[in-house]
Amino acid sequence: MELIGLANYALFMGIFIGIYALLALGLNIQWGFAGLFNAGIAGFFAVGAYTSAILTSPSADGRLGGFELPFFVGWFGAMVAAALIAWPIGKICLRFRSDYLAIATIGVAEIIRLVIKSEEVLTNGARGITNIPRPFGDLPYVQSQLAYLAIVAAVLVVAYLMVQRQFNAPWGRMMRAIRDNELAARAMGKNVEYRRLEAFIFGAALMGLGGALFAHFNRSITPEAIDPMVATFLVWIMLILGGSGNNKGAILGATVVWIIWSVSEIATDQLPHEYAVKAKYIRLFLIGLMLQLVLRFRPEGILPEPLRGDTRTDDNAVK
Amino acid sequence: MSALLTLDAVTGGYGDTNILQEVSMHVDAEEIVVIVGPNGAGKSTAMKAVFGLLNVRGGSIVFDGDNITKWAPNRIVQRGICYVPQVDNIFREMSIQENLEMGAFLKTGDLSAAYDCVYELFPDLKERRKTLAGSLSGGQRQMVAMGRALMLDPKLLLLDEPTAGLSPRYMEQIFQICRDVRSTGVAILLVEQHAKQALAFADRGYVLASGQNRHDGTGADLLADREVAEMFLGG
Amino acid sequence: MGFLELINFYVIPGVVLGSIYALGAVGITLVFAILRYAHLAHGDLATLGAFLALAVVTALGLPPLVALPVAMIGTAAVAVGIDKAFYEHLRERPKIVTVMASLGIALMVRSVVQVVWGVDSESYVRGIVRPENYFGLRIKDREIYTVVFMIGLVGVLQLFLVKSKWGKAMRAMSDNPNLALLSGIDNKKVVMLTWIIAGGLCAAAGVFLGINTELKSMMGWHMLLPMFAAAILGGVGRVEGAVLGGLIVGIAEELSVLVLPSEYKAAMAFVILLFMLLVRPTGLLRGKVL
Questions:
Q1: Element spanning B159, H or E
Q2: Can you tell me which family this protein belongs to (chain B) (predicted)?
Q3: Residue C258 sits at the chain A interface (C-beta within 8 Å)
Q4: Is some CB atom of chain A closer than 8 A to the CB atom of C92?
Q5: Nearest residue, CB atoms, C175 vs list B93, B101, B148
Q6: Which residues of chain A have pLDDT under 70?
Q7: CB contacts, 8 Å: B92 with chain C
Q8: 3-state percent helix, strand, coil for chain C, nearest multiple of 5
Q9: What pLDDT is attached to residue B233?
Q10: CATH class of the region B27-41+72-233
Q11: Distance of alpha carbon A96 from alpha carbon B154, whole angstroms
């Protein structure tokens, strides 16, 4: 029994790691490739979650939606919606230093949170959207979890391969050139703003997809489902710890940080209630401290960004 | 008598690359020395080396008996060398008087003698001392920049292309001010793009090319040198 | 709706809220201009200041205005400490790294508040305060204090920046950092001064928000966007601009209720921010664009 519980927990954790890894990959496109500071990851995540929920859930009174479209349409819609939100923000802010983008994305996440809470017609307000279909959700519990883990893993692998290919393609080299020496890139006639906009939008789309995967896994989405600041911050520490600019690092970081985060939660949940509540904040403090320490002592992360031109040999070495 | 400033076979650059290759020069007290040379010759770099803004990997820089090769800029300022960069050399959003005050930041006690000295050299500035420096014309800005540098009573003033972008009238005025400054006992080392005019006015000159010494001598000698003339004076 | 009602129900609360934003925005604009990065932990430092004052109020039974100086000094010390411990060694790295660190600091400061004081709403004094009537204008005493203190604090700061040697050094560092260093201005001292001022003003913003509304662990984070909007609206580096921007954002938020559902009050700051970045990124008073 113990063992089954543990296995179930591992499955559950695996699915979450997959979802967070997708977010970290999205952030890696924005930050790792292009040096763009997105402090509103949770906002794009929520847009994806709700978009897919609205597109795929059965109809319900008092709110829009109930289109009962297949899940993959919902997931695609999630990516498009997140990209569409990212577009105008990027358009306005990417002309400036990334500080402005950081502030604006905090704002976007805040506005999205307000919309989700207040627009009942769209999101059913505080009650949220339920009955979101899960692919293979009709199977028995363990099989269903397993099947979903497989889907998440497949999505992650596809996303990784696509991002990795872009990273080694001329596009990726150009992005890094822009990030490392904007003036030189401009002088070479690169359209810096346009390239950055691309990176920002692609990253946001992946975050939207992550949100959709989360909503379908939970079968429901409510405004309280995730704490925006915590989610955003976790993704950041995942990428920085894993190694920004390195896609494998992003996935590794997601794994390490999520295991630490959820195992420490289990540990502190054993405490009496009053301490357990405080322990949550202590964990937040420690995760904030962890970022400071990584920034100071190992800014390149566990897996540093591959040096230019070395990526190919690196891949060969793995084979 | 040993020179006020001596660069002996200085090699160095920004980061890992060497821009200067064994550059040597000296400036005596109360002397105006000009560095000329084609674009990219390392003229400004040589000046920055003196001011501790460069990675110097070989050779030495000695000022007034102290080896200042590895000193930080603020220590060099206190020792008596002031530097006027070519661009962004004033505080635009501060008044002329405040610019001068910032120049004397390291000085304690009464500044009125220093103000008087600078305003005597630049009477134009005195009338407008409450004006924001950013609203001045190019020539006046250059005066503010030089005035700021003179507030600490330096023994040596480093000027990086003080006449860049100025009209010939202002160029003459800046050169005249340099002579006036020298007469107060300050030596000047300057980098100049306008080689002909600068050599005509300076006591001595150094010609640099590709980060190396090419020629040196009095301004008049260099002007008369055929090789120097062909190099960049346009005949 | 009559003119007086417009003033009483929208403009006066807007000016009060705007004064609170202004206090925070001044610090943001100074950090932005002198240290050259967006400090994302500013809101949560304001929360800390508000709760430090609460500690003094509850422990010693003092009124919040008396606790204010203690909170300001305490928060200034914390701000300097944070800079020394976490930001200082990032100074040679790209500035955006410090922005990231400050996001982590925001989380850390907030979690300290949540552990020490919990997550429930608190207030300095219980009971309802009735506004006084001044020729038809209905104003509460605490609203007057808020505006008067804001003007006083910013006035003292302006005097410091214009008259004192170190105030001028701060302006010089903001104006032209390279030249300031060439002039021998001690960067470390200027940075420390900046944090003392920004931290103190931050605490004042938090305390006055607490006096006029209530104290919550998220109160500061929710002020971050309006404070940044105010700083950018006024022009980065412009103290008087930050005050002007704060007042405009505060009044705009209150007036927005006339046309938008009240839930979207907080969206006004965002709209103002994007609008300024779009049409005039230097702000109303021609500040810097980083």
A1: strand B156-160
A2: Belongs to the ABC transporter superfamily.
A3: no
A4: no
A5: B93
A6: 1, 307-319
A7: 175-176
A8: 75, 5, 20
A9: 52
A10: alpha beta
A11: 40
Give the pLDDT mean for C211-240.
Answer: 95
Q: What are the residues facing A67 on neighbouring strands?
A: A58
Sequence spans of domains, chain B: 27-41+72-233
This prediction has a pTM of: 0.91
Reported residue count of chain B is: 235
* Residues sharing a CB contact under 8 Å with residue A300, sequence separation 6 or more, in sequence order: A243
Q: What tens digit of pLDDT does each residue of B178-223 get?
A: 999 999 889 999 998 888 888 888 899 998 888 888 888 888 888 8
Q: Which residues of C touch A282 (CB under 8 A)?
A: 111, 115
Residue with tokens 């980060």: B211
pLDDT band at C243 (very low <50, low <70, confident <90, very high): very high
Residue type, C155: G
pLDDT score of B156:
93
B15-40 exposure pattern, b = at least 16 Cβ within 10 A, e = fewer: eeebbbbebebbbeebbbbbbbbeee
Residues in chain C: 290
Looking at residue B17, the DSSP 8-state letter turns out to be -
CB atoms within 10 A of CB C72: 24
In the block, tokens 């990231």 appear at C100
Length of chain A: 319
Interface ipTM: 0.92
Query: Which domains does chain C show, CATH number per domain?
Result: 3-120+130-279 (1.10.3470)
User: In the complex, which subunits touch B with 3 or more CB pairs below 8 angstroms?
Assistant: C
Q: Which two tokens stand for residue B225?
A: 């040198």
How much is the pLDDT for A137? 79
Of C240, C30, C42, C46, the closest CA to residue C155 belongs to C240
Task: Say yes or no for a CB contact (<8 Å) between C99 and A295.
Answer: no
Q: Chain B neighbours among C 168-187 (CB < 8 Å)? A: 168-169, 171-172, 174-176, 178-186
Chain segment C18-69, per-residue pLDDT in tens: 999 999 999 999 999 999 999 999 999 999 999 999 999 999 989 999 999 9
Contacts of C183 in chain B (CB under 8 A): 77, 102-103, 105-106, 148
Share of residues in chain B with pLDDT > 70 (%): 98
**Mean pLDDT of the region B103-112:** 87
**Cross-strand partners of A50:** none
Strands C132-134 and C137-139: antiparallel
Residues of C in contact with A292 (CB under 8 A): 85-86, 101, 104-105, 108
Is B63 near chain C, with CB under 8 Å? no
Among A96, A118, A229, select the one facing C107 at the smallest CB separation.
Answer: A229
- Residue C49's SS3 state is helix
Encode pLDDT of C106-163 as tens digits: 999 999 999 999 889 999 988 777 888 888 888 888 999 999 999 999 999 999 999 9
Q: State pLDDT tens for residues A20-54.
A: 999 999 999 999 988 899 999 999 999 999 999 99
The subunits that touch chain A, with at least 3 C-beta pairs less than 8 Å apart, are: C
Spatial CA neighbour of C183 closest among B104, B89, B118, B114? B104
A253 with A238: CB under 8 angstroms? Answer: yes
| C122, β-bridge pairs | C215
- Cα–Cα distance measured from residue A194 to residue C36, given in angstroms and rounded to the nearest whole number: 25
Give the helix ranges, DSSP H, for chain B: 43-50, 73-79, 96-103, 112-121, 123-127, 138-150, 168-183, 195-201, 219-224, 226-228
B82 pLDDT more than 60: yes
Q: With an 8 Å Cβ cutoff, are A291 and C101 in contact? A: yes
User: What percentage of chain C exceeds 90 in pLDDT?
Assistant: 80
Q: Please identify among residues 205-224 of chain C the ones whose CB lies closer than 8 Å to any CB of chain A.
A: 221-222, 224
Distance of CA B142 to the CA centre of its chain: 12
Please report the pLDDT score of residue A312 as a whole number.
Answer: 39
Residue B11 φ then ψ, to 5°:
-120, 135
